[in-house]
Amino acid sequence: MKDVSPSAVVKILEGEALWPPPVWLMRQAGRYLPEYRSLRAKAGNFWTMCNDPAMAAEITLQPIRRFGLDAAIIFSDILTVPNALGVPVRFEEGEGPVLDAVASLDGLERDPDVWAEKLSPAYETLRRVRGALGPETAVLGFAGAPWTLATYMAEGGGSSDQRAAKLWSYRNADSFSRLLALIGDCVSRHLIAQLDAGADAVQIFDSWASGLPKRQFEDWVIAPTRRIVQQVRAARPGACIIGFPRAATLEGYRRYAEHTGVNAVSVDTAMPMAWAAENLSPQVAVQGNLDPIALIAGGSALRSAVDEIVTAFSGKRLIFNLGHGVLPETPPDHVAALLELVRAAR
Amino acid sequence: MKDVSPSAVVKILEGEALWPPPVWLMRQAGRYLPEYRSLRAKAGNFWTMCNDPAMAAEITLQPIRRFGLDAAIIFSDILTVPNALGVPVRFEEGEGPVLDAVASLDGLERDPDVWAEKLSPAYETLRRVRGALGPETAVLGFAGAPWTLATYMAEGGGSSDQRAAKLWSYRNADSFSRLLALIGDCVSRHLIAQLDAGADAVQIFDSWASGLPKRQFEDWVIAPTRRIVQQVRAARPGACIIGFPRAATLEGYRRYAEHTGVNAVSVDTAMPMAWAAENLSPQVAVQGNLDPIALIAGGSALRSAVDEIVTAFSGKRLIFNLGHGVLPETPPDHVAALLELVRAAR
C-alpha cells in the first residue's frame, strides 16, 4: 500500500520534511478511552485482548476513528516475544506482568516456526487494521528490544533498576550476550512478519535503556538493535524502523542515532528538543516528546509544552508524539485539543 | 575542625585535585552490613532509628570503622524536612514511606523554630559523629531538594513518574513555586544547622530530577537549588555543597553545574565519565558513579567498572562514589575490594 500513496509518517521516515508534523501517541489505544473500557469490561484480561485479533484490531482502530491520528499502532504487548520464546506470561488485574524468571538459555524455544505460530495473532490484527484504514494512515507494528525483554525475563517481571539482567550481564557476559542474540533473532523475525502483514513501519521499544553505564549501553542496547535493523533490512530492504531507547543519555541517543541504522529515534520527555534538532536531525527523524502529564493537565500548560516542541523542530523531520505512553487519567478532549495544536503549527 | 587539617573530600570540594581520589558510598550505612541489621532488629523501625541520635551516630560510624571510608554521611532521611513542615511521615516495614498528601500550602508549618526542634535529632547525631572521628574523615550532612521533596508531599509517598507534583506544577505554577520556596527555606536552614553542628559539607539530593522537560528542570530543579546555595552561603560563606540531580540529561547536568553554585555534582550510573571530565570539570568537582549492581557482582566486572571511572578522571577533581545507593544484597567484602581498587588508582 506504501506504493500507492505513502502516509505522512512514512514520508518523514523516508527522509522528507513535512510541516505541520504528523502525530500519533504511544498507548493511544487504551484505558483513557471509554470505548476501550467498555470492551475491556467484557473481555476481562489484557493478555486475552492482545491475542484476539478481532478485538485487538477494534481497539487499534478506536483512537483513529475518534481523533484521526496519523498512525495506528497495533494493540499488542512487548511480552509476546518472551512468550514465543517459551516463557509463560501472566497479567493479573491491577498488577504488572509476571513471567517465569529465566537464569540461563536452557529450555528457551529456538524454533522460528513455533515463534511465528505463537506470534500469529499480531499478524492477523495487522491485516485487519491495514484493511480497515486508508493509505493516509500509517500502520505500525512493534517489538520490545532485546535488553528490555531480557530485563523482564531475568527478573520475572518489571523492575525499577533492572537488577537481575544487569547482574547476569556482569557475572556472565557471554551467556547474556547469547540470550540477547536469541531474543534478537525472534524480534527480527517478528518485525519482518509484521511488515509482511501490512505494517508500514515498525518501532523497537527499549523502555529500560536508562541507567546503563556507557559500555553496557553500547553492548546491550546499541549493538543488539543494530543487529536487528540489519537482519530486517537484509530481508526487507528499505524497511522503516523507529527506535526508542527511552531515557538514554544525550550521548547515548546520539550514538544510537548514528550507529543502529534506524530511520527515526523516539525520545523521552526530558530530551531538550533544541538539542535533538541540532544533534539527532537530520541523521534521523525524531519522534516525541510531550510530557504525558502535560496532556492530563491540558490548557495553557499543554499549549506551551506543544509550542516548545514544534518551535524547536519547525521545518525539520518530526513525528509528534509523547515522551511516554498516554496515561489512563487523560481526558480524551485533551487529545483532540493536542491534535488541533499540532496541526495548527506553522 | 576543617581549619586543623581538611579532609581529602573537603580539599577536593575547595578546588584541589588529589589522586587517588577519596571515596565514600551513598547509603554506606545500611542493610548490607550485619552490624546494621543487628541494631535494626532491636530498634525495629527505620524512622525511629533516624530520630535517635545515639543510634543514628552508631550506624553512621559502622562503615567507617569497618572500611575506613573518606567521609561519613549521617544516618537520617530526606523526609525529615516534610515532617518538619508538618506533614507526618510513616515507614511501614517492607513498604516505602507514606505521607499525608498535600494539595496546597494551607496548614504547612512556617515557624523556623518548630522546624529546628523537629530536625534537632540530626544535629545531635552530627555532633556525636564529628566528635568520634578524626579530621581526616569528612562528616557530611544532607537534605532532599525541594522538587524531590515536593514529589513525596504531593503524592503522599514515592512515585514512578512524579505525577502529582508535575500536575500541580502544570495546573498552578504559582502555588507550586511557593511550595518549593517554603520547602527551600526549610532545607536551607537545615543545611546551615548541620554545618553548625559539625558537618564539613552537605549534599542536596534531587533523587527525582529525571523525566522533567527542560523548562521544568530549569524552574523546579536548578532555580530552587541555586536559591538554597545562595541562602546557605549568605549565612555561612564558603560552605561546601554537593548537588545530586539524579538522572538529569547531560545538558541538565551541565546547566546545574554552571548555574547552581554547588562545589560538586554527584552523577548517576549512566553518566559517561569522559563527558563529565570534559564538561563538568573543572567548573565543579564530580562525584560518582559506579553502578551499585557492579558492586554486588564484584570480581572482574567491578574491576573494569572502577577502571573506567578512574581512567576518565585521572588527576581531576573526583570524589569516588556510586551512581546510586548501596543495595542490601551487596557483599561487604566487595566494598573492601572497591576501596583497594580506588586507592590503588594511579
| Overall form of chain A | globular
Distance between the termini of chain A: 29 Å
Q: Roughly how much helix do the residues of chain A carry, as a percent range?
A: 40-55%
Strand content of chain A: 5-15%
What is the succession of H and E elements of chain A? HHHHEHEEHEHHHEHEHEHEHHEH
List how many beta strands of chain A DSSP finds: 9
Number of domains of chain A: 1
- Indicate the low-confidence ranges of chain A by residue numbers: none
Largest interchain contact: A-B, 41 and 41 residues
What does this 3D model show about the protein?
The structure is a homodimer of 346-residue chains. By secondary structure, the first copy, chain A, is α/β, with parallel strands linked by helices. In chain A, 51% of the residues lie in helices and 12% in strands. The first copy, chain A, has helices at 8-13, 34-43, 46-50, 53-67, 80-84, 112-132, 146-155, 163-171, 173-196, 214-235, 250-259, 273-279, 292-297, 299-313, 332-343, and strands spanning 71-73, 89-91, 97-99, 138-144, 201-206, 241-245, 264-266, 285-290, 318-322. In chain A, helix 6 runs parallel beside helix 9 (173-196) and helix 7 (146-155) packs across helix 8 (163-171). Chain A is globular. The mean pLDDT of chain A is 96. The A-B interface holds A 160-161, 163, 166-167, 170-171, 210-215, 217, 247-252, 268-273, 275, 289, 291-294, 296-297, 299, 301, 305, 308, 323-324, 327 and B 160-161, 163, 166-167, 170-171, 210-217, 247-252, 268-273, 275, 291-294, 296-297, 299, 301, 305, 308, 323-324, 327.
